[in-house]
Amino acid sequence: MCSILTFYKLTQRARPLKNSIYFNERYNKYLFPGHLIQTRNHSSTNNKTPRWSEWSGVFTKFIPVGVCLIAVMQWRAFRRKSQDRVATELEIKCYCLLPLRTVSRCWGWMADVKLPEVLRPYVYSMYINMFKVNLSEALNEDLKSYSSLADFFSRQIKQDVRKIDQDSCLVSPCDGTVLHLGPVHHNEDIEQVKGITYKLPSFFGENTWNSRREQSRDYRSSLLHNKKDCPQLYQCVIYLAPGDYHRFHSPANWKPTHRRHFHGELLSVNPKIAKWIPGLFSINERSIYLGEWEHGFFSYTAVGATNVGTIKVYFDKNLQTNCSTKTPKCRDVCFGNSLELKKGDIVGEFRMGSTIVLVFQAPPDFQFTVNPGTKIKMGQSLGCVEQRKQVDKV
Description:
32% of the residues lie in helices and 22% in strands. The protein is an alpha+beta fold and 394 residues long. The strands form four sheets. An eight-stranded antiparallel beta sheet has the order 11-7-8-9-13-5-2-15, with no helix packed on it. A three-stranded antiparallel beta sheet has the order 1-16-14.
């Protein structure tokens, strides 16, 4: 009796499925995805949809997202592995083939374009927020008074916000970050960052400014003036970020007697690139000022970079950087002995961030007062002689 009742209930439940086309189609579609069974009204047709349509969403949505995620993960893994790897000659050549000079000239042109006075506060405020510029240090805090981005980059600062350390024989020529500093090795290698070097001869070029160069055994010795009292060369590299104060000053009391301009590349001088490309400062465009100070040889170099519109040196009106074409030869200018710079005197300006390289002669007891990676301000002490320290203490 129970089995008869059970069979009756099952037949009653199945009956609507046979009599209802709507139910029938939906029921069978649920049981058999992508197929419809024949019904009373459609007994002679067999409508089928392609199987790939059900998976089209997977191919058009999820797989591309997954591929992108995998690519990002692989790129991050590659960057982690390549942090300690330097660029090969092929990679450097490929990098130099990029139209960075054209891009830098376009950027310089855009930076010199005069902006409408209404837009100036908005444009400069975006730049201030992006690069964390301290506008309170500017001599003129009115954003509408800067006609172009280039004028805002090279803005003057108030005299009392930078104090020159008079107790140190060497001070910072600019605001920036110390990439590296220390003595120049006897193998004529200079470290642009820790572990990555460039050659002294390739950086300065042939020594034609020293009449006593023929008496020297090597290139490094040919730069020295007083070899007995000051037999050591030192170097310091300071990187100017886009948000830093873009004018550079004299780091010591010295006399520039010679200028040498190299029309090199305009590769980025970002610290990450400096760790990747050896000899970066010997490849890039640079304006080298050679002379002497109280301890002997002294050099002051402004290095060009990507998107640096121009390098202006106020006492060198003939200097032209970021030209449309580059030449393999350097251009020399002799100033004689008439030019003399005091510590803290204004020298020039960058139309965007770049790098200052100091190479100088000093006694063996010279000591740097900062470390690599230190954020430094113009006028802050870079180093001094130990004997002078002791005299100051007494």
